[in-house]
Records
---
Amino acid sequence: MKVIEVENLTKRFGSFTAVDNISFSVERGEIFGFLGANGAGKTTAMKMLCGLLRPSGGRGIVSGFDINRESEKIKASIGYMSQKFALYEDLKVWENIRLYAGIYGVPEKEATERSHTLLEELGLEKERNSLVKSLPLGWRQKLAFSVSIFHKPTIVFLDEPTGGVDPVTRRQFWEMIYKAAASGITVFVTTHYMDEAEYCNRVSIMVDGRIDALSSPASLKKEFEAESMDEVFRKLARKSKNGEL
Amino acid sequence: MRSFRIFVQKEFFHIMRDRWTTLILLVLPILMIILFGFGITTEIRNTKFAVYDPSGDYTTRGIVNKLESSEYFTLERYIDSEDEIERLFRRGETGFAIVFGDNRILLIADGTDPNTASVLTNYATALINSYLQESAVRQVGGGAATDVAGDPPVASATAAAHRTITPEIRLLYNPSLKSAYNIVPGIMGMILMLICAMMTSVSIAREKELGTMEVLLVSPMKPFLIILSKIVPYFTISVINYITILLLSVFVLKVPIAGSLILLSGLSLLFIFVSLLLGILISSVVDKQITALLISGMMLMMPAVFLSGLMFPIESMPEVLQWLSHILPVKWFIIAVRSVMVKGLGISSILQEVSILIGMGIIILIISIKKFKYRLE
């Protein structure tokens, strides 16, 4: 079953075409890596999928809803974790969880029960009443991810979720992503770390608003005769006119 | 509704967890009332004055008594020659002097501070005139009594009072010339604007800056509700501040509410709404807290202090600035509050100000709805 299906999706800002006629689809439970240099258009594409930006052209279905007409329904069925840290630092751990549970309409009783299990799993039981700003960055990031899938969305969009996190935490973070995918949540992730791209089931690489490559990491490496995803990425990005390296 | 409730709660947490913000929000109005009400005052009290009175007759002593019994003047001492006056002024022992001569009274004040000097001379002139009038009235009532007494200076002074037309000064609404009457409406305007416009714009800009706004916009929560829940806490605080200011001004500054309390409250609510909308408008054009702070500080607070007539009379400003002051909501609010609170006027006399405020509110609302980028561009 496909949870994201996009055809000829385009976004223009004036004369500048940020996203140029892209088409792809993502299967349920897949970990889909969305790669590209800064300015390649991946954030714009992702915002259209989340219902934050209206496309200039093309069609798209996200978790069964039309991105042109049903952006409000899409919002209720997806999770989102942004590049910037997304929890409120001056709220307590459990207050943050309750806030997002409330926004996404998770019933109060269920939210309380699940927040207990969640904190237990994260080993944050003792920090329930601590302010988020007192937690180390890695923990906050893991908590932010857990909060973004707290309402059991069909898809979770992660915009560079591991920026500024140490390698050990990144490893743990990816374990959480695998676990989420195994439970049926589709993971749509952008990243700058090419080693993380290797963890994805499939990877798309955007250059100048177009998707220049889309396949599993293994077949991409074969196709571009590269040792690593890093090499694949550099070979592709070299063709870019306006992206930076 | 539940998400709205939780969201409003979150906004209160933001404010209360930041102890300094809470303190400033709640203590600022009290501080300003006390500072402006007692510290910074344009009235003059207990100015020491010297008297040169070679004749020392009934009238001149009466005038000196009259001056001394007022709260504005305190008699420093009698001096023996006119030359001494300058020495007294130089040493700063006195700020005011009266010299009685034949058929003339010379009032001397320190002109280095023109405002104080003119206020002092005005007070003194008013007091002297009223004394002369009183004694004239007394004389008419007492028949030929003074003629019998045959005191020439008194006779000449009263005769002068009879002959010339003496202007009598009567200050309406604020007979005792208390500056608090002028200051309370001003402070009310400034505080409400500060809390509503500045704090709201900063708090929305904060979410944008931290990136949490992005997360909220991706959520199913309606942008309208996000903004509304941001407004609720500041609205509550504004109402608390409004009540604090009123209580302080009535019971501490002794400024009575001459008009209807309901009308005054309605007027303040209207102004609170306009200021909140202004805050939303600012936050819809900026992305950083510091920009929001600067814009609301520089573009709202500074002109509010200078152009609203709080400190300087608008009438004496250059025409360009007067014209500029018209676009400030706070100016109209202050005028209307003065009318209701100090003059005790009814709704019919503040219709102009009220309709201007309502008009401004509608314009700001339209612009901010158009500007509000609920889909992050």
---
Amino acid sequence: MDKMLTLTCPCCNVTAEETEFHAGGEAHLKRFGPGSSDDEFESYLFTRKNPKGVHFERWRHNNGCGKWFHVARCTTSLEVFASYPAQTYAPPEDILVHIDTRRPGWRAKT
Amino acid sequence: MSTRLATGGRLLNKSKPLGFTFNGKQMRGYEGDTLASALLANDQMLVGRSFKYHRPRGIVAAGPEEPNALMNLGAEGRFEPNARATTTELFEGLEANSQNHWPSLEFDVGAINKHLSRFLPAGFYYKMFMYPRSFWKHVYEPFIRKSAGLGKAPKARDEDTYEHFYAFCDVLVVGGGVAGLQAAKTAGQTGARVIVMEQSEHWGGRALVDGGTVVDDGPVDKFVEQIFSELEAMDNVQLRSRCMGAGVYDHGYALGYERLSDHKPGRDGPRHRLWRVRASHVITATGALERPLSFAGNDIPGVMLAAAVRDYAVNFGVSVGDRTVVVTNNDNAYLTAISLKHAGLDVPAIIDARVLSQDSAQVAQAKALGIRVMMGHAIASVKGTKRVTGVEICAQAGEGAVLEEISCDAVAMSGGWSPVVHLWSHCGGKLRWDAVNACFSPDPDNPPKGVDGMGFVTPAGAASGVFALDDVLNDAHAAAEGVMTTLGLRLPKDSAAPVAEHRGDAPMAPVWMMPQGANVKLREKAWLDYQNDVKVSDVRLAAQEGFVSVEHAKRYTTLGMATDQGKLSNINGLATLAGALDTDIPNVGTTTFRPPYHPISMAAIAGEAKGHVFQPIRRTPMHDWHNNNGAEWEPVGAWRRPYAYPKPGESTHNAVMREVTNTREKLGLLDASTLGKLIVKGPDAGRFLDMMYTNMMSTLKIGKCRYGLMCSENGFLIDDGVVARIDADTWLCHTTTGGAENIHGHMEEWLQTEWWDWNVYVANVTEQYAQVAVVGPNARKALEKLGGMDVSREALGFMEWADGDLGGFKCRVYRISFSGELSYEIAVDAAQGQAFWDALMVAGNDLGVMPYGTEALHILRAEKGFIMIGDETDGTVIPQDLGLHWAISKKKEDFLGKRAQERSHMTDPARWKLVGLETTDGSTLPDGAYAVATGTNANGQRNVQGRVTSSYHSPTLGKGIAMGLVLNGPDRMGEVITFPGTDGKDYDARIVDPVFYDKEGEKQNV
């Protein structure tokens, strides 16, 4: 019962407790497959971001609609800036602008 | 001695006497008593022994902060250890026993430790018990276990029931004192949904003992009566007493712990209820706790918190002593002296560490009652062993030279008040140091943050660091008003804080050691943590030894680590550490406050989740049949699968042997419904499956089946199963029983986060079908007997599937085999599963049909050298380790795991590889055993060269067979290696081919 975030699934629009979701780690990974160098592959597979502050994560609504989506949130205050569909290479600009208002200067730190 | 007064006791119902026992001794109390007040009324001041030195311990407090009065309560199925006497309401027949003493409370052998106290300093355990290592097991641990341990573990099963409640509200108010009630009223006026939780059975909190006047209502008890009835009349306000706010968590989640029948054991309904609340906002009106003062002998029974002495007198009509010396650094403790005097008891002196330039109202009142007030003085030492007999007085400014001795049988001490900031802090609220009141209080600029990044906890009243009645009411109203504004709710125009009369208290003065220049002899007798026996000298020693961080000093000394979690000792300990480090208290900081605020029962956390509702169980459509036919169950994930079907009088082992043999020789039925079934469909489904599986699935022909392996992107084998091509766009993927949901999620992750432009849908249809494996030489005959579709070798070859009907059942038949026998796996609609199973049992009647369970399935597959996910794999095994190269496509440019398997470690020829193992004497190898090699590793342990992954007795071969991963295994056929077992025996086993039975695969292909 320790971690009990509330998240909104952008696929089915349900706002629910963390127990209904499953965390999937860093979002917006660039996959390196066969043909990539050892360094590239290592960086892709193991060197994941673990920031203190703004973070973009994969979550799955596994006890709901079953879809994966992305969440932008603050790992220290637990503020959730937005959740958005996973079908994107980068966070949508309007979400980045919103984070700017909540965490001025955060981009310089990432 | 402590006794019941003739008058007083506003919480008592003296017309209802109650009988109870303490350590077997009959005692009497009244309805309304706590166990603590009733013990004191029976002159039972000595209630336990301390943890380390086994010092005699008396009741110190009157609430949940009590460190000493921990009891074993009840018996049998209602036995409970570590119950606090101060929060236990008395009931008829209550049985209490004190803890941590042997052989008796009065005479305790462990008390010898107190004479060894100079050998048991801070960090003693760390220093002493390190070496020699073998002493841990044989000397230290048995000794510590015998002499330590608060309470006993219950032996009987808990007779009571427990439940969880889920609730949602706009505002959760924690605390039902005047601040909580006022905040609830202000919030409730807006129509907001409000829940108020009060830990005790009574509303109104300390104000009812400490008094005060509210202008419109008169004495504060009238005010409480009035506001409570107003709140009760509000439909949007829910009031719960005996319900403690236990913890505040992320995004407004909070736990409440309601004790429904602790005061009436055996009453209908659950004993405890755990409230799982999601609140938009939490108001913590949790009040404040009084701190002890640090002086020599402050742990002797009879030394109590001043407010507790007052509580016992006013609430319970109990006198803690005939002659009570009050020692204080603030005005609040004067209330105790005054109320004792009013009760007709003697207060020989008030020892006040302060020097006030003029008398405050409280001081003047005490003096007017004829009480001797000694300003600038301190207690040098308390006299007595199991009970206070007197105090030695000295100057606070000095080093402890005794000026006079005052005889007394109780000492009421007050070192000031600390707001209860626990709930504020649980989820990240920061604290600030309040130098005026010498306490930490919530920093309003740094509240715990909610989902929107805004603070969602607001303290009110004493919990926010204001203590006078008028300030408390103003603060509570303002707090609730602020919360309503953030929630967008509007207060009525006439809403205002009630006006209370102001009591002009003189400022308190921080006092962390009494006297301030106390020498080491006095510091060694000045207790900070009563339960864990931490003294001022211990914290100073920790500082001296370099434990400058408060978190380190805490663990080194065990300060605040007892069941009271430092409610009394925290601030005094921090101040002592700060003093020793010659720095300020805010620089030292605080330790972390963690939920729950006060211990809650494990049973409440479990709630209803015990016995058959511990977790939801997944049942196949044939579950009841298995149950009625003697199945022994094996949990596989949330499923229950039959392990074997022993007949009456048959051992499980013999049943398994029989099932294997019968399946090999005649006909076996296996309920395979639990196997995962995922439909993967769409124009890009083939391309997608080529990425998911190591082998090629896009080329699979319609009507055919192929065994496939799935790896993680890290290259390791995660699942396997047979894939069938249903039509041009559709594949059906079987997964392992435990893997269906995970593999579904895994596929969805890749589809949605990486290849979202591919047109593929995945559906988990596992529970839509009942699936039966019909296995053995008579399998075809049984199906032909059912009649219907052609299941001949020509019509339905090995690794083919077909739709049709059998015995009138619409079915899909896969000719696949996990046993090496002629085998059909037949899927029917789940609803038809039992009927189909029944039909097969009838059809197989003359053919020797018998059901078989998972253990027979394991043996059958092991005899054939088929791997099992979770046996041969453990998250570090790649298909190449298992000799499954044939199932890894060399044509495909890419699949999940391909790049990973190219890494040097994965291609290392020294990776352990799968082989069969046969003991030289036919016995069965211990599962999981390691094969030893020559030499030792850097840690001096024997080198190893392999391990057993599966091991069974094979009835088919009449000997033990096993699979294992062995260094260079496939190149060492015939070599004998040794596996030491945990039973002390060495097992010699020969490395052999993992396929033990029907190497050519003729039997499945008939």
